[in-house]
Amino acid sequence: MSDKQGRKKIRDYFSKKVSFGWPVFLIVVGVFVYAVNSEGYNPYQCVGVGIVLFGVLWGAIALGQKASLPSDHQIDRWLEDDLSELSKHALRKLDLLPELLTNKEPLRVLGPILWSTPGVSDKDLLWKKGRDEYVRFSVYSVVMIYTAEHLLAAYECDFNMLKNVMLNENTYEFHYQDIVSVTTHETSTSYTLPNNEKMVVGQEFKVSVPGESINVIVDSQALFKITKGDMYHKDEVEKTVQRLRSLLRDKKQSLAAKEIHTAPSFAQPGSSMPAVPESVNSGLEAPPPSNRNAGSGAAGAEVRFCSNCGRQVQPAERFCSSCGKQLRA
User: In whole angstroms, what is the distance from residue 143 CA to residue 310 CA?
Assistant: First the structure.
């Protein structure tokens, strides 16, 4: 099956409403007409038989149409295939090498779109409640989140499943220490749904850093009133939030530990340090001269120490080779 044929089947799944109501009604009417005129031959019997046959034919056509429609499972599989390809596209947009990632599969957030969206025709804004009572949508807001050693990268777009098109794309890179929160919470919205009802309150997924954030509406009571079913990827959103929170805790604790271990320490003898301005005074006084060399071949030689960093210096040195401070004569 070509991609074009597959996309047509997806559209049929969302848009075609197959009903057996009229065929059943016609069959019942035809049987009634035939039964009322069952005594002796009369033209109404032929009419009754004709109505029954027409109802059976209509029912057979409807049954064939229903059989040709994709199942809920097929739609879910096609969506997963699309998201797998979308994750590769996201890596290219983010310019990330797979070997640098700590999670090979991205964390995902899918939010339904059932309101006017730039680049998406209103005819493409479709939904269907499956036999499993979950609601599937033809257009989603998609966020793919990747984690590397020092940063979190995310790709966001509006994905039209009917046409396999990514719209309104955005990319983000956040350092772990800059991320303030990862939440799902209720928020006010201004979206208008197909029944002209306003989405006053929506459930929103949000990753926040100072001055910027990723926001996706993942559910709302207004959507439930229309569809009478739960969002198919609702549970996946909660799992993503929990995994991101756990990851951020670990990363921030690790970064805090590294800062402690790499804190500046006093210079050791023989190390190289940048010169310190003379106005900086460490408060350390030079230790008294040592007499441990008295009586040796170096007897009488003066032992000197830098008054700034405490390093032993040679008698002929005018500046400390460790911190650069001018030595007293």
Answer: 57
Task: Tell me the β-bridge partners of 160.
Answer: 139, 165
User: What angle is formed at CA 80 by the lines to CA 75 and CA 85, rounded to 5 degrees?
Assistant: 125
Q: Can you tell me the distance from the alpha carbon of 99 to that of 84, in angstroms, rounded to the nearest whole number? A: 17
Please, are residues 140 and 112 in contact by the beta-carbon 8 Å criterion?
yes
Cα dihedral 186→190→196→200 (10° resolution): 30
Beta-carbon contacts of 296 under 8 Å, excluding residues fewer than 6 positions away, are none
234-243 residue pLDDT tens? 788 889 999 9
- Residue that has been written with the tokens 């460490």 in this structure: 282
pTM over 0.90: no
Residue spans of the domains in the chain: they are 17-68, 72-261, 270-329
Q: What's the Rg (C-alpha) of the chain?
A: 37
Q: Is 148 helix (H, G, I), strand (E, B) or coil?
A: strand
Give the number of other Cβ atoms within 10 Å of residue 144's Cβ: 23
Residue 277: CA count within 13 A, CB half-sphere: 2
Tens digits of residue pLDDT in 142-179: 999 999 888 899 999 999 999 999 999 999 999 998 99
Q: Which amino acid makes up residue 42?
A: N
CB count within 10 Å of CB 316 equals: 6
E strands, 101-238, in order: 107-112, 127-129, 134-137, 139-147, 151-160, 165-175, 181-188, 201-209, 212-219, 230-231
